[in-house]
């Protein structure tokens, strides 16, 4: 409701739309603090996946989450299919920084600005037409040719955008490279906590050879009929805990005292 009344946003998902962000980055930064990784700790599902990796049973963890909890759980064989808060890139100069440098701005619900672009504008390099103090006389002729471009530049000029894949953006190249390699090696696919509706990640299971067994750990049945050989329905954390108990594995729970959140990711 706040996004609609304060920013005139027609739908909440517009906050993750590339074009909308370029026109108005403020709604995203007013909400990003609620998604900030520091608010959460890895769940039992994350611990289960880490155990698989430690035992040499994890080929790859494909996650649609953007909260970096896989990294916090020390899972190394992970692909952040939709990007994450781990890094951020300037919309204008493309300078990339560690995502933690945005923490103060995000928690303050303030638009994060690129230090390089801000310094250039302060020094008199291309800035918004009409702003004061921007152009020493020696540079005016050179800068006049850029006036038209400056008038049309987006509201997100010089904004640091977390490297989350927005609607209208391509998935990371590492996703396609890893998937091509893994489809040749996978011998079991496990899907945990997902609606299995967001493409192209939702299409992975359809690309896997039909002879490869597939297990679903989820609150409800998803995907195409008979897509899974085994369906373990219920709370994902409880299911993973039960599996570990039956396997005789010790599942460390380090989530106490922090908020938890469902792991909506496909695992393979």
In short:
The protein has 268 residues and is an alpha/beta fold. It has helices at 2-7, 18-23, 26-31, 44-54, 69-72, 103-107, 115-122, 140-144, 147-152, 173-182, 204-207, 236-247, and strands spanning 61-63, 78-80, 83-90, 96-98, 160-164, 189-192, 214-218, 230-233, 265-267.
Structure description:
- With 268 residues, this protein is α/β, with parallel strands linked by helices.
- It contains twelve helices and nine strands.
- A four-stranded mixed sheet has the order 8-7-6-9, with helices on one face. A three-stranded antiparallel sheet has the order 4-3-5, with no helix packed on it. A two-stranded parallel sheet has the order 1-2.
- The longest helix is centred in the C-terminal third of the chain and has 12 residues, at 236-247.
- Residues 127-152 and 254-268 have low confidence and may be disordered.
SS-based structural class?
A: alpha/beta
How many helices does DSSP assign?
Answer: 12
Strand content of the residues, in percent?
A: 5-15%
Average residue pLDDT = 83
- Uncertain stretches: 127-152, 254-268
Instruction: Please give the largest β-sheet.
Output: 4 strands, mixed
Q: In what order do the strands lie side by side in the largest sheet?
A: 8-7-6-9
Rg: 22 Å
Oligomer: single chain
Distance between the termini: 37 Å
Number of strands: 9
Sequence of secondary-structure elements: HHHHEHEEEHHHHEHEHEEHE
Shape: elongated
Amount of helix: 25-40%
């Amino acid at each position: 409701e706040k996004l609609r009344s304060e920013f005139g946003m027609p739908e909440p998902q517009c906050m993750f739309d590339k074009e909308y962000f370029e026109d108005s980055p403020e709604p995203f930064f007013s909400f990003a603090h609620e998604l900030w990784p520091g608010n959460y700790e890895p769940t039992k599902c994350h611990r289960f996946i880490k155990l698989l990796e430690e035992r040499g049973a994890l080929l790859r963890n494909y996650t649609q989450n953007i909260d970096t909890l896989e990294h916090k759980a020390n899972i190394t064989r992970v692909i952040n299919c939709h990007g994450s808060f781990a890094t951020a890139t300037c919309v204008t100069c493309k300078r990339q920084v560690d995502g933690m440098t945005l923490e103060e701005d995000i928690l303050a619900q303030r638009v994060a600005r690129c230090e390089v672009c801000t310094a250039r504008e302060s020094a008199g390099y291309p800035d918004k037409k009409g702003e004061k103090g921007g152009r020493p006389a020696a540079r005016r002729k050179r800068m006049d040719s850029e006036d038209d471009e400056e008038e049309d530049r987006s509201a997100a000029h010089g904004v640091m955008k977390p490297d989350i894949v927005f609607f209208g953006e391509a998935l990371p190249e590492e996703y396609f490279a890893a998937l091509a390699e893994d489809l040749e090696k996978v011998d079991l696919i496990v899907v945990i906590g997902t609606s299995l509706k967001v493409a192209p990640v939702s299409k992975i299971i359809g690309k896997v050879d039909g002879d490869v067994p597939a297990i679903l750990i989820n609150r409800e049945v998803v995907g195409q009929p008979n897509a899974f050989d085994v369906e373990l329905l219920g709370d994902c954390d409880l299911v993973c805990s039960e599996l570990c108990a039956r396997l005789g594995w010790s599942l460390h729970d380090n989530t106490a005292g922090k908020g938890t959140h469902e792991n909506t990711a496909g695992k393979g």
